[in-house]
Amino acid sequence: MGRNKAINRAKCFFDDNSFFNILADWVAVDTGCQMDDRKSRMLSYLEKKITPCLEAMSFNCRIVENPVEPSAPFLIARRIEDQTLPFVLIYGHGDTVPAMNGAWNQDLSPLQLTPKGDLWYGRGTADNKGQHAVNFAALDCVIKERGSLGFNVIVFLETGEESGSPGLHQICEQEKESLKANVLIASDGPRIDPDVPTIFGGSRGMFNFDLIINLREGGHHSGNWGGLLANPGIILAHAIASMVNSQGKILIDGLRPENIPQNIKDAIDKLTVQGKGGPDIDPLWGEPGLSSAQKLYGWNTLDVLAFQCGEPGKPISAIPPKAWANCHIRYIADSDPDTFIPAIRKHLDSHGFSMVNIEPRPNNYGIATRMSPDNPWVQFAISSFEATLKKTSEPEQKVVFIPNLGGTLPNDAFSRIIAMPTIWVPHSYAGCNQHAPNEHFIGKIARQGLVLMTGLFWDIAENKANLIKN
């Protein structure tokens, strides 16, 4: 029995295709968020796939109804070895975006795990079935090697993350005592680079809103009324241009952070963002004077996601009556989203755009959160990963820590409601096509993730006395 043997067990579990076979079985269950029989499919995944996996590790599992969205149930599973030991909460989500049958490459099926070299294609491989499969397999490797975990584990799976996590915050409040732990350890989102083991401590928040101009009833012939009637599309375009310039700089002070805190800036400045595996980065886009890492992890962004005026599919020679744009803000923990609409309203009014209505969208889930690089759990996780890397064939690799992910996760449900430190360890990368056809997992990342998580779980038991204090 020992750490190295547990890690070797993890390697063998991956290399003999045991991990691949489990993931293939889970990917075959269509848990797309827009299915007509969504609840039955989500229950099938939780009850027929996840529950047997966890019960084999002596977890007690129960399904919890969602108070907001009945078709998105939760699973809470607990393995309690000793109340005096540390408690670890592991989160994941079983729902996926729609399978998008017919849109994938001709030789791929979204519900069949298909390896092509080191890429494993299938819906949910990266988001999120493959990621929580890595963590569950790591737990199993430690149990089989040690005969126990040496700490207590609570698994919490939702099935509504792709729909904005309806009911998640309410369940965290309702089940606060049964979910309470010393730390959240979860996996979602991408590494900063496919080859760089990554830890992040929170996520930027997301605030969606619509800008609407409705000037009159119906369109009017442009030959008879052009030059006489105000065009809502032109007005809305200028309104947006007053809010964000042609290179993506936010022009409303109330939507911009005052600064990046020094300890957060120091952590971000160690990072290099290259966009490997994705599109080329536009170096001149965004807040001038900031590095790519500072723009992504330490600043707010304002983007237009959709813009409509007239009939885009069948334009006609008429002055349209209205225009609409869907916008959103990704914001860091220093920003207060409650101030966004008032700041936009004041700005538009002062620039002559009082005719533009602002309507917040209902899917603003999750408040921005982040972790300090000085947090003891952050330091512990980094030290564990570095120790594992030194004893594997990749000692030259470094572990990077990001105070918050550039994207958005419902991390505040754990950091604020249950009040615990949050450690996220992504087992994917930005080019994985997670919300598109041809979603895939990288075998090398999955294998390394399994090894790193096995080492981390082993180390929690070995350092339980100190970790309980944190």
How would you portray this structure in words?
This protein is α/β, with parallel strands linked by helices. It folds into 2 domains: 3-203 and 369-469, Zn peptidases (Aminopeptidase, 3-Layer(aba) Sandwich), CATH 3.40.630; 205-257 and 300-360, Alpha-Beta Plaits, CATH 3.30.70. It has 15 helices and 19 strands. The protein has helices at residues 3-15, 18-27, 38-55, 129-146, 168-174, 176-179, 222-225, 232-243, 262-268, 292-297, 340-350, 376-390, 412-417, 443-462, 464-469; strands at 60-64, 74-79, 87-93, 114-116, 119-121, 152-158, 183-186, 190-191, 198-200, 205-214, 220-221, 301-309, 318-319, 322-331, 357-360, 400-402, 422-424, 428-429, 440-442. It has a 6-stranded mixed beta sheet, covered by helices on one side. Strands 12-14-10-15 form a 4-stranded antiparallel beta sheet, with helices on one face. It starts with a helix and ends with a helix. The relative contact order is 0.19. The mean pLDDT is 95.
Mean pLDDT: 95
Structural class: alpha/beta
CATH-derived architecture of the largest domain: 3-Layer(aba) Sandwich
What is the CATH class name of the largest domain?
Alpha Beta
Strand order of the largest sheet: 1-2-6-3-7-17
Give the assembly state of these chains.
single chain
The total strand number stands at 19
Low-confidence stretches: none
Helix count?
Answer: 15
CATH fold name of the largest domain, please? Aminopeptidase
What does the main sheet amount to? 6 strands, mixed
User: What's the number of structural domains?
Assistant: 2
Shape: globular
Taking Cα atoms only, what radius of gyration do you get, to the nearest Å?
24 Å
Give the N-terminus to C-terminus distance in angstroms.
27 Å
Task: Please bin the fraction of helical residues.
Answer: 25-40%
What percentage of the residues does DSSP assign to strands (E)?
Answer: 15-25%
